[in-house]
Design brief:
single chain, alpha+beta, 4-stranded antiparallel β-sheet, 22 helices, 19 strands, globular
């Protein structure tokens, strides 16, 4: 009787549901509208099989899970944030842990009951529909209920725990979402800091994990990354920890701390430094992005300005006034400033040896260029097995180490490149070493390739590099079909489905790619055609084959692939991709001069440049079939340059279609030079 009277006081529970029960009803209605009603009213010509209910309007479900429970906690525990209600409730003959338990149980009921009613209705709707838009099994329904329950309870208990340390409801809500975003803000901005000041830091090392470290950003990744048991377990563990912490904090909280910004003295420095350092990172990242010349000084200035603004803002929030000046303000700010500066400086300091750390040849077991390889399959981004991309070739390892040593020794930085963020001939290289002691070293650099031409040539001539860089590993998989499309005009395409022809095509394409010279790889000549290879994907984690027509790899068929082009001719495929001279009525030329040394410009076949009547731009047109034939055999692809003379060209088809291309001045034939002499 005593247990029931204290922990399940019917008067308190009745008052909670009478006053706040409408929140549970709203939650139920929102969930019913966003899931079973959505599933039951969607109409398509086909049934989509889904393995998670988050594939069906999942972003809205997650939004409800991270907002409605927060509102519930704010309303249920409003009494501890207001002076009058705090005195009234704490004068009742109930211990605080009893009162907290009843309020928590009320919140849990208002969260869990709507979720599981929605799950049951969803299962029923799916069963009664004759032609459902979405097809799923009971496991998907059960997993949706578990995930929504745990995430909702996490946001609820986080709000409760924060409320024990905060004395104002509005600040409590803002702090909850601030805490939820801190991992995303901290790592996103701190990674920018490391990339800017730490030479060789690989910026994308956590590229596909950062979105999952915040419940708010997680909403945007549901379409390709379903919450798994590991993620759910983390939220469940945090929910238990936060619930326990709420009991401990509530026991120590003073009633008179209601309406105060911060209720515990020990929390004030944590809040002050947390807010200050967050503003420091955001301000530094912003000033770095807007800096003229991309100079480091602007980033440092941003950190200083952010430190001052963050500290002053935190003080005003804590004291609830803008009159914060006193003798201890500057010394205290100096302490926090030094702590923030050390956190920013120590990881990027030269003396830590990160920038100059190149492993010795004897310690390297294997090496990889290009980083992780991922594909999009079955509505998910799948990371491919690393091992197939690493090479243990002694010669290749030596070539990579030679390049790495020279990059580190010259310490060439492309940060000071002016407002233009692209320079001609820049090359981004990502190096991953697996050492014999089991450790991994990763570095990433953006350098000007002409300064390392010999080293790049030695590395890129190895098959080990070409297999990864050009994706020839995908040609070893089973292939459904091959589609080849002309680069000149997209309506010229052929498809290969005969197994024998596919095997021959794959073998020739792989040979041509692996036989490329360094000059072939650097060439700016436009490809003759592109080949899209559709294939099966074997999911190693589930040991099953997913037949997905959208899973494909694209390869360029370059003019230097003479054996492959000869094969296309032999199998009567080449002519189907070709454009006949007789199809073209005329060709128009316009001269384009680039002279912007130090500021690279992307030069590409530009329809606007040749179609618009520009002052000082004279066009030359010709119907000469020989010149048109020569144009059909050659064209430049777009690339960055800061100087050169180019000719924008427009081919006018008899049937009204237009094709645009580009040539450099040195590409012109004698016939072309003759008609262009007047430009």
């Amino acid at each position: 009787m005593t247990f029931n009277r204290l922990y399940f006081n019917r008067g308190i529970l009745h008052q909670n549901f009478r006053q706040h029960g409408w929140l549970g009803i709203v939650y139920l209605l929102l969930l019913l509208v966003s899931l079973p009603l959505y599933i039951g009213t969607q109409y398509r010509d086909y049934t989509e099989e889904i393995n998670s209910l988050f594939r069906a309007n999942g972003e809205f479900h997650w939004l409800m899970a991270i907002t409605v429970p927060v509102v519930m906690a704010l309303f249920l525990f409003r009494y501890i944030q207001a002076g009058g209600p705090a005195d009234l409730y704490h004068s009742l003959p109930l211990q605080r842990n009893h009162m907290l338990t009843m309020n928590l149980m009320t919140g849990y009921a208002m969260i869990l009951i709507p979720i599981w009613i929605t799950a049951g209705v969803t299962g029923w709707v799916s069963a009664v529909l004759d032609e459902p838009t979405f097809s799923f099994d009971s496991t998907a329904v059960w997993m949706w209920g578990v995930t929504m329950s745990i995430v909702s309870l996490f946001m609820f208990t986080l709000t409760v725990a924060v409320g024990m340390c905060i004395g104002q409801s509005i600040l409590q809500g803002l702090t909850v979402y601030g805490i939820s975003l801190i991992p995303l803000i901290f790592w996103g901005t701190f990674e920018m800091h490391l990339k800017r000041f730490l030479y060789g830091y690989p910026v994308d090392i956590f590229r596909f994990k950062i979105e999952t470290i915040s419940p708010i950003s997680r909403m945007g990744s549901l379409s390709y990354a379903i919450p798994g048991w590991g993620e759910i377990g983390i939220y469940a563990t945090l929910t238990v920890v936060l619930s326990t912490l709420s009991y401990l904090l509530y026991r120590k909280r003073h009633v008179e701390s209601a309406t105060q910004a911060i209720t515990f003295q020990i929390v004030k420095p944590i809040f002050r430094f947390g807010l200050m350092f967050t503003i420091v990172l955001l301000s530094g990242a912003y000033f770095s992005m807007i800096s003229p010349g991309n100079t480091e000084e602007w980033g440092v200035a941003g950190y200083i300005i952010g430190g001052v603004a963050g500290y002053v803002g935190a003080e005003m929030i804590i004291r609830k006034t803008w009159l914060i000046w006193n003798r201890s303000l500057l010394p205290q700010f100096a302490v926090y400033g030094i702590a923030a500066a050390l956190i920013l400086y120590v990881p990027v300091a030269d003396w830590n040896g990160y920038a100059t750390n190149v492993p010795s040849k004897d310690n390297v077991e294997k090496v990889r260029i290009g980083g992780d390889q991922r594909i999009y399959v079955d509505n998910q981004i799948v990371k491919l097995n690393d091992e197939q991309f690493y090479s243990s070739s002694v010669g290749y390892i030596d070539a990579v180490l030679t390049l790495h040593h020279k990059i580190v020794d010259t310490r060439q930085s492309l940060n000071d490149r002016g407002q233009n963020q692209i320079i001609p001939d820049q090359e981004s290289v990502r190096i991953d070493y697996k050492l014999k002691n089991g450790k991994t070293i990763s570095r990433q650099y953006t350098v000007q390739e002409t300064n390392f031409q010999q080293e790049f040539q030695n590395m890129k001539n190895f098959e080990d590099y070409k297999v990864v860089s050009y994706g020839t590993y995908a040609l070893d998989n089973d292939v459904h079909s091959v589609g080849i499309r002309s680069r000149l005009t997209s309506d010229r395409a052929v498809y290969i489905s005969d197994p024998q022809l596919i095997r021959e095509f794959k073998a020739l394409l792989k040979t041509e790619i692996l036989n490329q010279t360094y000059e072939d790889q650097k060439s700016h000549w436009e490809s003759y055609a592109s080949a899209e290879v559709y294939q099966n994907y074997r999911d190693e984690s589930h040991k099953q084959i997913l037949d997905n027509p959208n899973l494909s790899s694209t390869y360029e068929i370059k003019p230097t692939y003479t054996r492959l082009i000869a094969w296309l001719k032999e199998n009567k495929l080449y002519d189907q991709l070709q454009v006949s001279v007789d199809e073209i009525a005329s060709a128009q030329f316009i001269k384009q001069e680039i002279d912007s040394r130090g500021k690279a410009t992307l030069v590409y076949p530009d329809p606007q440049l040749i179609d618009q009547s520009l002052t000082g731009k004279k066009k030359v047109a010709t119907k000469n079939k020989e010149i048109i034939s020569q144009l059909l055999q050659r064209q430049r692809s777009g690339y960055y340059t800061d100087q050169g003379i180019f000719y924008q060209i427009k081919l006018n088809f008899n049937k009204g279609q237009n094709v645009y291309m580009m040539l450099k001045e040195e590409d012109l034939t004698e016939d072309m030079k003759t008609i262009l002499s007047e430009l």
